[in-house]
Amino acid sequence: MFSAMRAEILTIGDELCRGEIIDTNSSHLAARLWDLSITTRWMTSCNDDEADIATALAQAVARADFVVCSGGLGPTEDDLTVDVVARLAGVDPVIDEPARARLEAFFARRSAPVGPPGPAGAAPAPRTATGIQLRQVRVPAGARIHLNTVGLAPGFEIPIQGVPVICLPGFPREIQSILENSLDRRFAELREAGAAGGTVERIARRIYRVFGCGESQISQACRGMIDGVAGASIHYQVKFPETLVKLVVRGPDSAAVAAQLARFDAEIRDRLRGFLYGDGDESLPERTVRRLIEAGKTVATAESCTGGMLGELLTRRPGSSRVFLGGAITYADAEKTRQLGVQPQTLADHGAVSEPTVREMAIGARERFGADLTVAISGVAGPDGGTPEKPVGTVWLALASAAGVTAKLLSWPGSRDQVRTLASWWALKLLDEAV
Amino acid sequence: MFSAMRAEILTIGDELCRGEIIDTNSSHLAARLWDLSITTRWMTSCNDDEADIATALAQAVARADFVVCSGGLGPTEDDLTVDVVARLAGVDPVIDEPARARLEAFFARRSAPVGPPGPAGAAPAPRTATGIQLRQVRVPAGARIHLNTVGLAPGFEIPIQGVPVICLPGFPREIQSILENSLDRRFAELREAGAAGGTVERIARRIYRVFGCGESQISQACRGMIDGVAGASIHYQVKFPETLVKLVVRGPDSAAVAAQLARFDAEIRDRLRGFLYGDGDESLPERTVRRLIEAGKTVATAESCTGGMLGELLTRRPGSSRVFLGGAITYADAEKTRQLGVQPQTLADHGAVSEPTVREMAIGARERFGADLTVAISGVAGPDGGTPEKPVGTVWLALASAAGVTAKLLSWPGSRDQVRTLASWWALKLLDEAV
Questions:
Q1: Cβ of B332 and A321 within 8 Å?
Q2: Which homologous superfamily does the CATH classification assign to the domain defined by A6-194?
Q3: Which of A51, A84, B80, B396 would suit a FRET pair with B125, their CA atoms being 20 to 30 Å apart?
């Protein structure tokens, strides 16, 4: 039979049990495990309470093949995970020296005051780690370290009653870093170990990224595709403004599983043509900038309602300075004229949210920035400012290149943030298509 | 003594344990309970598995004053909550007739096919509820109904071993409807019942927003403040780049609780002076724009490494067009000269990331945009581009106003996103202080 490895996830924090933050770590970890065919049987959240953490851990090690905890590794007194895990593992907490070195280096480098804000005239804050800060670099003695290259608290792993217990910080970015550094490999290792004596299930999977249509359209387009294929499954995950389509094929034979995925791959690309822009981890902003860099084409932006969001998206990726020259944020109409040369008459006749205006914005930006490609956005982000002719969600976009100017109208009545995000992504899509 | 009502939340669904969806229901319910001073001690998620649901429920009723479940009330065969709860309550599942009537009315009204998608050319789908659809209007016999006016499956409540177990659908919108229809009142009722014979606990709380120092510094600054005050607690929540400090006072007497909170309020503002910028729900971007609007002061931005992030933050709030004129994103050095008039010699002598450059950027922006306040940002966001003199995380900021120009150096070696976010927030802080 297949590997039936069972994991349990425990997230720790008062803020979870008070509903102050949504636990995204459990689902993120469960998804990584599921991709490896490891079943998460229980996910539990408890408060920063020593007895409750101990109860949850004892229960987890009694019924799971391994346990993943998140939270409670910080420097404050209510961060108790290290102490409880160490006690249950029968060891003492000790300082992890490499983590202490990183902590010291961090404090030595930073220039902002690090001590408590004291009364005026108090001594300058220290630049070395104090006792409370050292709390976060403690681990149970003998623990295997899972390196955290984003934050200060290391991840670690130690068996309790022979069951591996992996402890991670509570910050999603730090968990991601630890997954990439070592934990993904460790999960795979645990899975192989769990399959000893049985047959390891083989998995082929691919994530497709879809932008420009909704989840129900996508699920309709994919309907029936996997029917009758044993071990095949398809899942949809909305990550506004895009949707991820996850295709998974499982079975005992690697080659058969890969061949089936390849057949599905061709079909899904056909069924979602025009909307599927990529696959894997690369999202549209990163893809667009990568392709601009590869093509050696420069870009500049002209933004009104998005207020800089498009520029921010284009500069998220390191290396964007090779292609992104800059942008004009022309929120006030007078700025559309001053910075981009939009004719006052155009604004008077057609309004700021109009095809003629965005065309002049894109052309004006191209002339002034001297970029190969420019894109302009002007719209009604809401919640106010809508009219019967131009309701909230009306956005005009224009792309200018050596080939001329093309314009596009969006009309999607979402929240202010959604309208702005959707407009910025459509601008990226226009750029991506024009590279 | 006080009411120390303890609730437990159980969310049920394979899609949760596979990490396909994030469980927002638990935190939503926990927040509602917390507002009523009901502590959620455990939150558990399990698969659509009869034995696991029964295990989780048995455990919950053994340790909680009441239990709230979500999920598993739908029409499909893997929706098992009604069956398991009925069995543990010692009753049979029965059709809830009012819910059946709504279901029938729903199917009579709808025009879209409701049956399973059949092969092309199959008979049109029926417009009456079939057996499988009736599954979702079943409840345990004798259950109290919690009306769901958004979806088809009713919420319900039935005691198991004397402990109230409240079962809700998995869709957040439906839970919200049930909360508003009856469940919020029911939670309050349970809380009062839990206090029978005792005193109902009164709560006063306030959230403080702190920017410019880390969680460990903040907790150090607040150390000892609540010591010896019964019913007082203080919690820290990092929401990079800010930290929320939550102060809670509980006790039997409303006036005493409020008075204690007022004493703490004065003290915490003193202890966190210079870093505490506000309280409540208003974050720094919204606060800054609100205060600019109130003061009638206009603003423009000059951004390099943040690429538009500051402009995006300043335009998140509706009404920002009353004060935000626009911005110059000058990613390339030539753009700093073209758009803002930075002297090429300044760039050559001091580099783009320098005090002279950001000063010229801020002054140039103020002259060109004609804004009351302008702020300029230029830094090394990383991960590449750092030098020994200007490592990653080095950011210069300048603020120009009628009073002159002030500059500030940041030096915080975080990730690219963190450096950019921190720089944008510091720019907001400079603006907020200058309003």
A1: yes
A2: MoaB/Mog-like domain (3.40.980.10)
A3: B80
Q: Has residue B192 got a pLDDT over 90?
A: no
pLDDT at A233: 85
> pLDDT at residue B119 above 60?
no
- pLDDT class for B115, splitting at 50, 70, 90? very low
pLDDT at position A236: 78
Closest by CA to A319, choosing from A292, A343, A337, is: A292
Name the class of domain B292-434: alpha beta
Long-range CB pairs of B181-188 (<8 Å, 24+ gap) are B181/B146, B181/B147, B181/B148, B181/B149, B182/B146, B182/B147, B183/B146, B183/B155, B184/B32, B186/B146, B186/B157, B187/B32, B187/B33, B187/B36, B187/B38, B188/B36
Contact assignment for B212 to A306 by CB distance below 8 Å = no
Percentage of chain A with pLDDT > 90? Answer: 75
Q: How distant is the Cα of A331 from the closest Cα of chain B, in angstroms?
A: 5
Q: Is pLDDT above 60 for B124?
A: no
Residue A15 to residue B235, Cβ atoms within 8 A: yes
- DSSP symbols for A105-154: HHHHH--S--S---STTPPPPPSS--HHHHGGGEEETTPEEE--SSSSSP
CATH class belonging to B202-279: alpha beta
Superfamily of domain A284-434: CinA-like (3.90.950.20)
Instruction: Tell me the average pLDDT of chain B.
Output: 91
Mean pLDDT estimate for chain A: 91
What value of ipTM does the predicted structure carry? 0.80
Answer positive or negative: Cα dihedral of B9, B14, B19, B20: negative
Phi, psi of A336 (to 5 degrees): -65, -35
Contact A41 B274 (CB under 8 A): no
How is chain B split into domains, by residue range? 6-194, 202-279, 292-434
Residues of A in contact with B245 (CB under 8 A): none
Nearest CA-CA distance, residue B142 and chain A, Å: 30
